[in-house]
Amino acid sequence: MKILITGGAGYIGTELAHVLADNDAVSKITIFDNLSRQNYNLFLENQFPSGKLNFIHGDILDGRKLTKALEGIDVVIHSAAKVTTPYSDQDLHQFEQINHWGTTELVSKIEQSNVKHCIFLSSAAVYGFNNSSFDEHSVPQPVNHYGITKRRAEKEILRLSDSVKVNIVRSANVFGYSRSMRFDSVINRFMFDANFNNRIKVFGDGRQHRAFISIEVLCQILESLVVNDFQIEILNAVEFNYSINEVIFEYLKVIFPDIDVLFVNQEVPVKSIILKSVFENELSLQSPSQNLQEYLTQFKTKFSF
Length: 305
Prior knowledge:
The chain has 305 residues and is of the alpha/beta class. The chain has a domain at 2-172 and 213-238: Rossmann fold (3-Layer(aba) Sandwich). It is built from 8 helices and 14 strands. It has helices at 11-21, 63-69, 92-111, 145-158, 186-196, 215-227, 244-255, 292-300, and strands spanning 2-6, 28-33, 53-57, 75-78, 117-123, 133-134, 165-171, 173-175, 199-203, 209-214, 234-237, 240-243, 260-264, 274-275. The strands form 4 sheets. It has a 7-stranded parallel beta sheet with strand order 3-2-1-4-5-7-11, with helices on both faces. The chain has a 3-stranded mixed beta sheet with strand order 8-10-12. Strand 4, helix 3 (92-111) and strand 5 form a beta-alpha-beta unit. Helix 3 (92-111) packs parallel to helix 4 (145-158). The radius of gyration is 19 Å and the shape is globular.
C-alpha cells in the first residue's frame, strides 16, 4: 500500500509517518509539505526503513505537483492546513486559500487519479461551541474562520465519496510529544510554560470545557483507518473532556505544584466544546491505557531541563 500524507512534516504528520513506516502493510510513504512552519525534524535522526519514505516539497495549491505526487498512490491522508490555537480570525484569506481551496485542488486531482481511499484530518471546530456535547450526528455550526474553512473542506472531500472511500476525522485538541512540536495548543502550551516559566495564563474563568486527544491515540486511529475496512464516513477523535480548571488543578498541579495561574479577563464568558463519538468502539484500538496524569508525567520527561 502506497500512502501520500499532505502536511506530513508537521506536528501530527511527523509522528504518523513513523507509525505507518513500522506497518508491514505500508510499502511506501510520500510526504507532501511546503515546510511553512520551518520545522525540519522529520528529516533528522530516528531513521525510517530504507527506501520507504520520500519527500516532495510542494504547496497544496500547486496542482501540477499534486498530480505528480498522486501517481501510484493508494491512500491519501490530508492533514495540510493553516492552524492557529486559540482559533483566530486573522489572516482570513490564508485560511480560505489553504484549508478550503487547497482541499478543493487536492480533490480535483484525486478525481483524476487512481486513489482508492482518502482520509481527511478535520477538526472539532466545525461544530462551533456549546455547553452540550457533540457527536457525529450533530449539525456543524462553526463560529470562527478556521472552523468554517475546515467545514468547507469537508464538503469538498465528500464529493469523492461516490468513487473513493472517504473518512473524515474530526479531531479534538491534540496534545503530547512529537518530534515536530507545536506549543500553541492548550495542554502543550501549559506544559511548556509550567516547566520553564512556572506560570500559566488562562483566558476567562477556566470553567470552559475542551475535548482532548493524545497525538499517540490520534495516530493510532489514522493508522487503523488506513489498514482496516471501516465504513465510517465521519468520526470524532476524542479521549478526554475536561474543563481548563480541571486540567490545571487536578492534573497539571500534581506535576508542577508551585506554578502560578494567571486568569485574564475572568468576566468574559468562554463557551465550551464537549465531544463524544458513537463509533469509537468500532475501531477496536489497542488503547495505551493512560489517563491524563500519566500522559503529562511522560510528556514532562521530554523536556531537556
